[in-house]
Amino acid sequence: MKKISVLLAYVLLITSSIIAQRPAVSRKVFKLFDKSLKESAQQYRFMMQRLEADRFPVSWKEKEDRLTTSGSEPWVGGFYPGGLLYLYEYTGDSILYHEALRKMKILEKEQYNKTTHDLGFMMYCSFGNADRLSPQSSYKEIILNSAASLASRFNEKVGCIRSWDSDPGRFMVIIDNMVNLELLLAATQISGDSSYYKIAVTHANTTLRHHFRPDFSSYHLVIYDPHTGNVQKKQTVQGAFDESAWARGQAWGLYGYTLMYRGTKDVLYLKQAKGIADFLLNHPNLPKDKVPYWDFNAPKIPLEPRDASAGAIIASALIELSGYVDNKDGKRYLKVASEILKTLSSAEYRASIGTNGGFILKHGVGNYPRNADIDVPLIYADYYYIEALTRFMRLKKQ
């Protein structure tokens, strides 16, 4: 396989560190977010006591006072160890670090799992963070094997990585896949093998052409003909209706094109990320506290449930994006991210220590149309909340 150029390898070494001048942030905000991170670490210590050794947390059933958990194979497996690693990084609590390592030992077999499109969530949120904190050849090998498994789902005719598995005549692609591309960019950075980078770019470009409407809102699902690459249908699975803007889907798009700009420096991706951000921030149905309803077009707004997970993902993406734009937009994006995090850090959204099954946030929405995980804690909401807080606190050092 062709080796990537020295210049491109250098570009891919760029991380999510802040590259533009940042606006001043008040000490009060830093103090609040510092408290939130430290109490989040205490909350996860509480969860550790309730969690079975070989299981991964997904949510919590309040009436039964029972954690809902999974094995290592679902898409959510990497969020718990990834969150623990962020909290260890911030607090230095080695108990959290060793808990993350124990869970990653169970998770590592998924590096060979070719039946899922979610290996970025599973393996990069966990092993990617672990390698960032303590670089090891074993972590890099797992990342490379995971990327190879993910790349096996790529179809050249379509120009995308397959989401889920279906009958041979349909090739499904969901907007969520954009975030999994980070794993492929990391694989090229580690190995110098440009094939992973090219797949990521091709997928991002195909998604940009077919998933987005003129206002920068996104369909959840696009179905292609696997033999011709032609679009068969555009629809939703988790949104209110096919033409609606499912909140977490918009968040995945924002996050995905922000990380693609970081990894390529292609201004097309920056333009797309800015367009999505502006669609979200200017939407008339975005509440004053900036935590979105589960769908921006849900029919019973303002009586619809909020989705803390979408809010946390948007906040994390905006913090990074604020470093890639001019000072005016940077201030605007960072201000909204701060507002989201202040809302999520309030008693309305953040659970008291020793409650909520050990989860940090309340009021997440998993799959509203299927009546699954509505107004409950969600492990991925916690992960992106922790990541966003961590990213924000790094501003203090600049």
TrEMBL record:
Molecular functions (GO terms): hydrolase activity, acting on glycosyl bonds
Keyword Hydrolase attributed: yes
Keyword terms: Glycosidase, Hydrolase
Superkingdom field: Bacteria
Record-linked InterPro entries: 6-hairpin_glycosidase_sf (IPR008928), 6hp_glycosidase-like_sf (IPR012341), UG_Glycosaminoglycan_Hydrolase (IPR052369)
SUPFAM superfamilies given in the database record: Six-hairpin glycosidases
UniProt-listed Enzyme Commission number(s): 3.2.1.-
Family per similarity comment: Belongs to the glycosyl hydrolase 88 family.
Protein name: Unsaturated glucuronyl hydrolase
